[in-house]
Amino acid sequence: MEGEGEVYRTGFDELDEYMPFAGGALYLLGGLSGGGKSTLLQSFLETQVFGGVPCYFNSAEMSAESVAKRFLQSAGSIRSNFFNEPSKHMSSQIGESMTAGLIKLKDRNLMIDDEQGLTVEQLKVRARNWITSQSSYIENGKAVLAVDYAQLLSYDHRNSASSLGIITKELRALSKELNIVVILLVQLNNDYKTRQDKRPIPSDIAGSSEMLKDCDGLIFCYRDVLFNPDTLDKDIIELIIGKNRNGAQGTVRALCELEYFRISDIKNKY
Predict the structure, then answer these.
(1) For the segment 10-59, what is each residue's pLDDT rounded down to a tens digit?
(2) For residues 141 and 23, is the Cβ–Cβ distance under 8 A?
């Protein structure tokens, strides 16, 4: 009645029309290798931290240093090859870009946890303790937990279907307990290789159909250039909504600039 929204903006206006993030919900994010899913997750987190929402990011896939570099390169528009040979690419322009990126990221409420092999219970304890200690969460009740990725958590590989299902159930329970958004990256299997249309579908989620049942929303990444080098959509990534518990499914096109580790709303350029 007072006009206070409960949803979290995704950073993509069209995606917000379909499926804005909601507190107490679990979202799966999947894509093929090199498809941009980690960069898309980064974009979601940037939108939150720049909006004052604290984010806890468990990155067993990459070190905290690598993640921080990616955030800096996105914020400062610094090309991905810079940190490979800084002395080769350093210039006054790069220095200005790095300073601008650091200023933009300074004092943002992002915790990068690169501990590997955590059980879901250990992850819940670490995330809960940090999130509930943040003043902005105490005041506004908003926070995000992101995990990159589900299959890197510790679970029983002999019974992966039920074990991965336990992970999603526990993380969904945490989202409801704290009324926060949980975004979980998932690996996909190779079933796409047998299809003419390589766009991911829900049955491509590797390891467990239970994960699909537990989530409130599912987003897939697809870049046509990976399969069709002559495509006109070289700089386009498709965000495919494979499940939406509270709305419609559809596809949103976004601008993909992986050389800056950045995916952004396409309307910002066109």
Answers:
(1) 999 999 999 999 999 999 999 988 889 999 999 999 999 999 999 999 99
(2) yes
The C-alpha atoms of residue 133 and residue 259 are separated, in whole angstroms, by 35
Which residues are CB-contacts of 69 (< 8 A; sequence separation ≥ 6)?
83
- For residue 12 the two structure tokens come to 């993509």
pTM of the model: 0.91
* HEC readout, the chain: CCCCCCEECCCCHHHHHHCCEECCEEEEEEECCCCCHHHHHHHHHHHHHHCCCCEEEEECCCCHHHHHHHHHHHHHCCCCCHHHCHHHHCCHHHHHHHHHHHHHHCCCCEEEECCCCCCHHHHHHHHHHHHCCCHHHHHHCCCEEEEECHHHCCCCHHHHHHHHHHHHHHHHHHHHHHCCEEEEEECECCHHHHCCCCCCCHHHECCCHHHHHHCCEEEEEECHHHCCCCCCCCCEEEEEEEEECCCCCEEEEEEEEHHHCEEEEHHHCC
Domain 7-268, CATH: 3.40.50.300
In a 13 Å sphere around the CA of 222, the CA atoms on its Cβ side amount to: 20
Residue bearing tokens 């093929």: 32
Cα–Cα distance for residue pair 246/253, rounded to 1 Å: 21
